[in-house]
Amino acid sequence: MRTNTRPRPAGFLAAVLAAAALLLVPASPAAAHNSLKTTTPAKNAELDTAPTEITLEFLQRLDPAFTTIVLSDAAEQKVPTGEPVVTGAKGTISIDGTLPNGTYTVAYRVVSADGHPVQGSYAFAVADPAGTEAPAPTPAESSPTAEPATAPTEPGSASPVAATDNDGGGGGLGAPAVMGGGILVLLVAGGLVLLLRRRRSTT
Q1: DSSP class of residue 99?
Q2: How many domains does the chain have?
Q3: What percentage of the chain carries pLDDT values higher than 70?
């Protein structure tokens, strides 16, 4: 008798469905992580009026104890703001004072309900026709004062040392050598004269 080894259609379909289910299981934890949904002001927005607050909305609820939102200007200086106020999946900070025209960066770090931290940043610009321009960065003012402070000290301290080494070293060693050589010549000449006189007296 022959045995039928071909798989049944029902068993084969069940095996395919089981394999597909295994492939979908690892993707479910990644999909549970939180992420940024919307921002106010929007990313890369150019505003005609300076905002008074910044709101970030995420896909999941936020933990108020681990929500940080920081605003900085084009010179990477922190702009004074209030502490983040968390309402569900939204975090909001109020801006102290009026923002002058310029580019600003919002940086955030939050922890979602599953304990996964999420961080990032985005930029927006303020271009109010009636507003004031941001002050010029301070590094341009400090650079001219730093150059004269270091320039005079280096050549001024190097030149006297070079002069003393060169002048003192050449004169101090040459004079004793000349005097010593002259004394040796006189001693040798005197010895030869004495020898010649003794030989003449003996003969």
Answers
A1: P
A2: 1
A3: 50
